Amino acid sequence: MAHFNITLAADRTEVIADADAYQQEGPLTTFFAFAGGREVIDSWSSRLASFRTVDVLAVRRIEPPVETTIVSVEEPAFDESGASPLLRSA
After folding, report:
1. Residues 6+ apart with CB under 8 A from 32
2. Does 38 map to a domain?
3. Where are the beta strands (DSSP E) in 1-90?
4. Most buried residue, 32, 39, 50, 63, by most Cβ within 10 Å?
5. What letter does residue 40 receive in the DSSP assignment?
6. In a domain, 44, yes or no
7. Are strands 3-8 and 56-62 parallel, antiparallel or unpaired?
8. Cα dihedral: 57, 34, 46, 7 (round 10)
9. How far apart are CA 30 and CA 57, in angstroms?
10. Do 32 and 44 meet the contact criterion of CB atoms below 8 Å apart?
11. What is the tens place of the pLDDT at every residue in 37-89?
12. What's the pLDDT tens digit per position in 12-43?
């Protein structure tokens, strides 16, 4: 799950872990976690943190590292003539 780095006035930085989104609510900027596989902020979302919008200088969303799977590709087999059965000529 993503998290947000918030730069506030007076060179303060906050990290909001497990947040999915944020929105302005009146004079506050509020960070939310979605509920039950939802992908929008609604009444089931959990409020995680709120900051005075006038104090927020920057918001940066940080995605977790993407897991990669390395797939080994075998060399094509060659027959006695040295030709690969995977390669064909026109």
Report:
1. 19, 20, 21, 22, 23, 41, 45, 46, 47, 48
2. yes
3. 3-8, 12-16, 21-25, 28-33, 46-52, 56-62
4. 32
5. S
6. yes
7. antiparallel
8. -10
9. 14
10. no
11. 888 898 899 999 999 999 999 999 998 887 777 766 666 566 666 666 555 65
12. 999 999 999 999 999 999 999 998 888 889 88
- What's the distance, Cα to Cα, between the start and end of the chain in Å? 50
Q: Is residue 82 part of a domain?
A: no
Nearest to 37 by CA among 45, 29, 26: 45
The domain of 46 spans: 3-62
- Is 7 part of a structural domain of the chain? yes
29 vs 2, residue with greater confidence: 29
Report pLDDT for 63: 87
Q: Looking at the chain, how many residues does it have? A: 90
What distance in Å separates the CA atoms of residue 33 and residue 31, rounded to the nearest whole number? 7
Q: What is the pLDDT of residue 13?
A: 94
